[in-house]
Design goal:
47% of the residues lie in helices and 12% in strands. By secondary structure, it is α/β, with parallel strands linked by helices. The chain has a single domain, classed as TPP-binding domain (Rossmann fold). The radius of gyration is 19 Å and the shape is globular. InterPro entries: DHS-like_NAD/FAD-binding_dom.
Length: 280
């Protein structure tokens, strides 16, 4: 298993970046400087709306299960909650934090044809626009079917977009539906995985659907090899984290993912350093 420093990862990262084959996959941690509500606070909102004490509501199930209960019990369903999320996540003060976020500025300095994110909000594509770049968010089937503007960065909203409530994946049943790997973002990810390297940032690698996609890709590689023929080495991906531990690097090695250890004492500086090293 490989656990790399930024210096050790710099060479392989630069190589695939210069080939145009490095795709960031950004999780909630990437938007930490924006001080957005985390899952616990979101579940608190749901609990209060249903008449629960927030701390007690979260004891009744996993976040996706609580979201499903909210969708079932609350008048207006999950869309009323998504509307509240949109108002909070896209507030003026959050936009101001994005414009001064070193991480978002560092991302916008790079040239990425494609970026994936599990974040629902608009701050990744808006950070690119802040830097004068064209960005297109893809979440609906029509978004993926439409021919994108030439030169625009395609920001693939893997768990949906707050601007399109029907695309947002919050409830347990929605997550289970995604495990069929038939939605447009899943099909695109499977295609992109064939010839690109992914760099996971701000991502805990705890989402079952993402892990399942990587598992299925490995199974397809095994099943696709002719009998008696050794499989060709696969293009490697990278997961940047502030604490790799012993278990995850060993498991991710089976899926051809190297781990990059970042500095937990200065997280923002370390993320910026990792992104800046691409142009070194």
């Amino acid at each position: 298993m490989a656990v790399l420093t930024i210096e050790q990862a710099a060479g392989p990262l630069r190589e695939v970046y210069r080939e145009g084959r490095l795709i960031p996959f950004l999780g909630a941690g990437f938007s930490a400087p924006l001080q957005l509500p985390m899952w616990r606070e979101l579940m608190g909102w749901m609990g209060e709306a249903l008449g629960f004490e927030p701390a007690l509501f979260e004891l009744h199930g996993l976040p996706s299960q609580l979201a499903g209960f909210f969708a079932r019990e609350r008048e207006g369903g999950i869309e009323s909650f998504i509307a509240e999320m949109r108002a909070q996540f896209h507030a003026r003060e959050v936009d101001e934090r994005r414009r001064s976020s070193p991480q978002h500025k560092a991302l916008a300095r790079r040239h990425f044809p494609t970026i994936y994110t599990t974040n629902f909000e608009h701050h990744i594509e808006e950070a690119l626009r802040d830097a004068g770049k064209e960005a297109i968010a893809l979440s609906t089937f029509d978004d993926f079917a439409r021919c994108p503007a030439k030169g625009a960065c395609q920001v693939i909203k893997f768990h949906g977009d707050l601007e399109w409530p029907e695309t947002v994946v919050l409830t347990e049943s929605q997550y289970f539906s995604r495990l069929r790997l038939e939605a447009a973002p899943d099909q695109r990810l499977r295609a992109d995985l064939l010839s690109n390297s992914f760099l996971f940032l701000g991502y805990s690698f705890s989402d079952v659907d993402i892990r399942y996609v990587w598992y299925r890709m490995e199974q397809m590689r095994i099943e696709g090899a002719p009998p008696g023929v050794k499989r060709a080495s696969h293009r490697r991906c990278f997961w940047a984290t502030f604490g790799a531990g012993l278990v995850q690097p060993a498991l991710l090695e089976d899926w051809h993912i190297d781990v990059i250890e970042l500095d937990p004492n200065d997280k923002t500086r370390s993320v910026v350093e990792l992104l800046d090293v691409l142009d070194g």
